[in-house]
Amino acid sequence: MDGTGANGFDKSLCFRLRFMERILSVKQRFSFSFFSVASFRSWTALSWTAVLLASLACGSLWAQQNPGGQGGQNSPGGQSASIAPLPPPRAGYSFPAKQTFTYAVDWRVFPAATAVLHLEADGAKEHLTANADTIGAINLLFHVSDKFQSTFDREKGCTTEFDKQTVEGRRQINSTLKLDYEQGKSVLDERNLTTGQTKRLETGIPSCLTDLLTGVFYASSQGMTVGKSFDMPVSDPLRTVVVTMKVEGLEELKLPAGTFKTVRVEPTAEAGVVKNRGQIWIWYTDDERHLPVQMRARSFWGTITFRLASVENK
Question: Which run of H or of E encompasses 65?
Fold first, then answer.
């Protein structure tokens, strides 16, 4: 064994990160005994940000090592046939013809990254692209540059393809997930650009699914009433997981892009990345558009927050 996961990620890094997290906590308590105030704050900000970004990869690795959950794993059919398909968008709703969201990403009080998400109509299809890049001196410690693209049906919301190119430190992975609803299966093709290893995996799927990225925006097409919830079957990616979107309450948020009246939604699931990442909340504007203006994930690594910096119709 070479100590790497199925996607080429170094398993030992996860254990080193946990150890580093404990060391950092101790140093925060006794900072005045070891460092000047200025040097300690600078070192802590960089180190904590590195821990956060690398921990995202650890979360994905853990999910792959503990598949479980619903749906047929690596074979067509299975329990996926009993999962209800994705509910259609509400009457009168249409996905944007062209729209770009820019988010400032923070871990606790430290700037960590910038994320840009772009939606654009292409006939009967909609393309959603996302780019996330580390910022500042953190690139010297742990460089992350991830690119995602999802294609889904504008009328029904069903994802047909999800592509991912990840650069996380020395790890470079390209993967494509195609969902074939006629044959009732999804096919994942993955290539490790560092080792040259490739793999292909198949699993059964129901008649209409969203994916982990598109699901954030697909939820905008549903009604949101405080105290109620709705379900979305999600490809995650080698099984189908039902994510329940719980509409919890109303809040007013002051963000870099402005002040918004919002509705707070908590996605929950019995398995998969949504469960394994701890608690997640998404704040949507409390209007017909339901724009996702803030996202937050809280786990044992701490809290990471995406705050809307700008939204443009281009």
Answer: helix 37-65
